[in-house]
């Protein structure tokens, strides 16, 4: 069956089986491999994308269900080719990753959090990423990355940059 | 971890959905799919056909009915959580919703789906039973209503006919000085609850005038403890009153066990969480504006 999806602001048409998950459609049909396949039953969060701005598991949706929504993948966050979004940049700077498998999902989850809550507490951040499993970092630097991104987005980083 | 092949259909009316379900007994309803899709990925469920009801207009919207608030079955759990109406009129549901899965599953999972799925650890069914709500469903023969206490018949089992679409879930609204409490214990944040407990209390002239308390997780179906309400209504609900009222009803609970948590542990936790929920509800009711 044919599905028409709106991903990162562009319309894509893919020929899928009814049983093709949105995750497999993104990766195998559309070449958007930033959404990672981990557990494929909704537990690890590696496949997290944004559906109308809210994080969702792309392994728990069939592509056939996904028409009509604004889907955002990690490929859609950078402002221009070769650049990084503020959140992506913060993850690099604080070393908020090791193997990187959970990273696109962590960044999208953080991006969504900061869109609705520009100055989250540490607890807000922990709660927001509680559905994303990272087996490398122990989460500490991921939380720092989100805190740094929040400060930068709030424009309160002038003093820090001057150092 | 890939689902077996099936046919996907998206009817545009409720009656069309009911007709498809009547014609194919292996067809299953899908809305949010947050439980069904993993079941299909693990091949524990192999429906012939998925009937997508998520966009049916008959299943949409949160309605203020005065004495109750009802949810179209396809209301996303996250939309219920964000609703001001829910915060004001259904404080117990508002307290429970953040415990339902994670935000990324609540953004897709539906209120009706959680009720139809009837996981004993699920929070929305617990609140529905505790507040004595009701469930509405449609078949090709018409619409029927079922009280929450009769709807849940066992773990993952309900009174919903195979060819029915759950259409609405209705929660009674209490007015006056109302307070609520919700507590849960699980291995990890938002994992399945070993035990959960919730309570809603209304105070009048310094004494408890109305009370509902329920226990979920670790019991086959969410269970409302009516004997506790009978014992505490008319009292000031001292901590000692609460502990005494919980003793026999919690001892009589049909507690399940598994390799994670023993029956004794779950029963102890059930008693403690119910006591905490009742104390929280009491304190909030006393502090609430009339």
In short:
The complex is a heterodimer of chains A (163) and B (290). Chain A is of the alpha+beta class and 163 residues long. Chain A has helices at 22-29, 86-93, 103-116, 122-128, 140-153, 158-162; strands at residues 2-7, 10-15, 48-51, 54-57, 70-72.
Key terms:
heterodimer, A: 163 residues, alpha+beta, Ubiquitin-like (UB roll), DNA polymerase, domain 1, 2 domains, five-stranded mixed beta sheet, 34% helix, globular, B: 290 residues, Uridine Diphospho-n-acetylenolpyruvylglucosamine Reductase, domain 2, Uridine Diphospho-n-acetylenolpyruvylglucosamine Reductase, domain 3, Enolase-like, domain 1, 3 domains, five-stranded antiparallel beta sheet, four-stranded antiparallel beta sheet, 12 helices, 14 strands, 27% strand
Question: What does this entry look like structurally?
Answer:
The complex is a heterodimer of chains A (163) and B (290). Chain A is α+β, with helices and mostly antiparallel strands. Chain A folds into two domains: 2-76, Ubiquitin-like (UB roll) (Roll), CATH 3.10.20.30; 86-158, Orthogonal Bundle (DNA polymerase, domain 1). In chain A, 34% of the residues lie in helices and 14% in strands. In chain A, strands 2-1-5-3-4 form a five-stranded mixed beta sheet, sandwiched between helices. In chain A, α3 crosses α5 (140-153). The radius of gyration of chain A is 16 Å and the shape is globular. Chain B is α+β, with helices and mostly antiparallel strands. Chain B has three domains: 7-52, Uridine Diphospho-n-acetylenolpyruvylglucosamine Reductase, domain 2, CATH 3.30.43.10; 58-172, Uridine Diphospho-n-acetylenolpyruvylglucosamine Reductase, domain 3 (2-Layer Sandwich), CATH 3.30.465.10; 177-287, Enolase-like, domain 1 (2-Layer Sandwich). Chain B is built from twelve helices and 14 strands. A five-stranded antiparallel beta sheet of chain B has the order 4-5-10-6-7. A four-stranded antiparallel beta sheet of chain B has the order 11-12-13-14, sandwiched between helices. The longest helix of chain B has 25 residues, at 263-287. The termini of chain B are far apart. The chains are: A alpha+beta (163), B alpha+beta (290). The interface between A and B is medium-sized, with 28 and 30 residues.
